[in-house]
Write a structure and sequence with these properties.
This protein is α/β, with parallel strands linked by helices and about 325 residues long. It has 2 domains: about 180 residues, P-loop containing nucleotide triphosphate hydrolases (Rossmann fold, 3-Layer(aba) Sandwich), CATH 3.40.50; about 90 residues. About 50% of the residues lie in helices and about 5% in strands. It contains 14 helices and 5 strands. Strands 2-3-4-1-5 form a 5-stranded parallel beta sheet, covered by helices on one side. Helix 10 packs antiparallel against helix 11. The chain is globular and about 65 Å long. Bound molecules: zinc ion. Zinc ion (ZN) binds next to helix 3. This is DNA polymerase III, delta prime subunit. It comes from Deinococcus reticulitermitis.
């Protein structure tokens, strides 16, 4: 399994009432839905922790954090937790155009490209080391019909009482057969105060102004804190570019070239929109169009250096009028 998402240990502070419901959950499958980066994966790990914890539970029924199972989970080495995700790359090494969780994720014999190290079916044949095997499916909307059918058989009669935690942004994009066999829980953004406490506990604080900006950017999404360093860097880059665009043509082109080298598709677009948030609606609309054009060009494998230059020039136009 991959390392534990940072706020998993703070999940009780962020999603206490949800953990109250999941702690005593006696069914076979949970479906967690909610916006991107709201902390669904961290919550799924917190549920896995709850169902394997042998210590004294907290006030929301959250795992103790110190028993052997909790320590294994925090170390990213829990033998009873399997995370299943779509693979981002194809066998040819190119970024996959369309994300999918293939049948090979469930059945070892069908994993032709050997994309998955551990397969759900084989994973569930083994008895739990602690209390309960937990299969977390991150991206349940990417389960095709064949994969979903194979999973449904396991969900209906889970070996050794295994628990499935399915994660999706939008419930409606999950196959109805999976929805109907799962208990559904909506994960809402946390309050700014709760997220601020989680940030303080995480040791990632960097001074009042910087923290305030990070929290404003996060807007209650705990998953943003996991990438605090990348987000702060992206916000700085976004301000640098925006400042350079107003300074002049050469500064704008230089800043665009620098941004190209640091470009992080997960954070820079959102950071740019955040930095432009205080501008006029007309300016924002033109800047958004320039950004969308850049993203489309990059996805189409256009010349990146040229695409960033075009972006910088479009931004100068976007911010040049009706200031
Ligand atoms: Zn524990």
């Amino acid at each position: 399994m991959s390392p534990l998402p940072l706020p998993a240990l703070g999940a009780a502070a962020l999603h206490g009432p949800l953990l109250e419901q999941t702690g005593g959950f006696g069914g076979n499958a949970l479906l967690l839905t909610g916006p991107a980066r709201v902390g669904k994966l961290a919550l799924a790990y917190a549920v896995a922790a709850q169902h394997n914890c042998s210590g004294v539970k907290g006030m929301y029924g959250e795992a103790c954090g110190s028993c052997p199972s909790c320590r294994a989970l925090a170390a990213g080495a829990h033998p009873d937790v399997l995370l299943v995700e779509p693979r981002a790359t194809t066998t040819t090494g190119k970024a996959a155009r369309r994300k999918i969780i293939p049948i090979g994720a469930v059945l070892e014999g069908r994993d032709k490209g050997r994309e998955y190290e551990t397969h759900v079916y084989e994973f569930l044949e083994v008895r739990p080391t602690f209390a309960r095997r937990v299969v977390i499916v991150q991206g349940a909307e990417y389960l095709g019909q064949e994969t979903a059918n194979a999973l449904l058989k396991l969900i209906e009669e889970p070996p050794h009482r295994a628990l499935f935690v399915l994660i999706a942004e939008d419930r409606r994009s999950v196959l109805p057969t999976l929805q109907s066999r799962s208990a559904r829980l909506n994960v809402a953004p946390a309050s700014d105060a709760a997220l601020g406490r989680a940030l303080a506990q995480s040791g990632l604080t960097q001074g009042t102004a910087s923290d305030a900006e990070l929290l404003a950017f996060a807007a209650g999404r705990a998953g943003v804190l996991e990438a605090a360093a990348e987000v702060r860097a992206a916000l700085t880059d976004a301000r640098t570019l925006t400042g350079a665009v107003e300074e002049g043509m050469l500064a704008a082109l230089d800043a665009a070239a620098a941004l190209e080298k640091r470009w992080h598709a997960a954070w820079h677009p959102e950071a740019l929109r955040f930095v432009w948030g205080g501008r006029s609606a007309a300016q924002r609309a033109r800047a958004d169009t320039a950004l969308s054009d850049l993203q489309a060009a990059l996805e189409a494998y256009a010349n990146p250096a040229l695409s960033f230059q075009v972006f910088a020039l479009a931004l100068r136009e976007a911010f040049g009028e009706d200031r």
